[in-house]
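Hello forum,

I keep getting stuck at the same step: I have a sequence, I want structure tokens, and every attempt I make locally crashes halfway through. Rather than fight my setup again tonight, could one of you with a working pipeline run this one for me? It's a single chain of 314 residues.
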Amino acid sequence: MDPAGLQQILTLAAGVLLAFAGGGTLLVVSSEVRMRAQRRARLTASPAAAVGGFRPDDTFGGRMTAGFLRLGQRTAVKDPAKLSVVRTKLMRAGFFSRESAAVYLGARAVALIAATVATVLLLPVVMNGGGIGPVLLAGVLSAAAVLGPDQFLNMRRQARELEYTEGFPDLLDLLVASVEAGLSLDAAVSRVTDELVRRYPNLTVHLRFLTLELRAGKSRKEVWVGFADRLGIDDARALATMLRQAEDMGTSLGETLSVFSSDMRTKRMLRAEEKALALPAKLTVPLILFIFPCLLGVLLLPAIFRLTGALGGQ
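Reply #2:
Ran it on my machine without issues. Output:
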């Protein structure tokens, strides 16, 4: 294809993208006009009060966060069903504020808008023969805008789930000791929270939420189920199920917790053994790529040097 035809195709593509951008802008504006009444009903508080845990200040970060919050609130109004799912993901990642979902949705919308604008700005460079570099840059920006926020949340969630998994056997051991010493389960949770705050700070945050919900009057079943949902690990779900069954059947809570704690210890030992057994297989590729060439060079270079000297002398 000649350069003139390629330039015409790129120009047409740029025009189509701009047309889509203009149509999307008009659609957003019309949707905002139609849903103004619903937004006013949901956002009755003042802007300063609506920000809540993300109260804006005079700094650049505070103003940017407030802007993300307002944009995210509009997005949440349009799709309320998605808000609960986003809140669950954010809570498992360590963001517990009521407005964190709106801030996250606003930040993701801003990232998509920025990537779109950057892609449109790179089109003239591509049309003027900029090569494959601007196209790759536009692809990287688009992928970062689409996948970046979710990957950030997944990384935080995985790090916290690792702490929860490691701290759960210690939590159960302390619960067993407290219950067998004569404390009730609710008092034992409060006591264990004070003991684990230095070793597992993120886990103790959820334990404090559990204690506050119990003091607020919620039933023990609902509180432990909510605790398991916030942690998002199988051990917490198993503990909630075990406590519900123990309460329904009237079995001894101390013995039940003791058996469950022993199972958690066994599982943690099995996980450690699994990692130890998988280590040789994981070391195979580094050995082949890095250590084996060095070893081969150390063994063969003297022989090659002697052969070169011998052949050169002849």
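The chain has two domains: 3-130, 161-269. If your local run keeps crashing, start a new thread with the error log.
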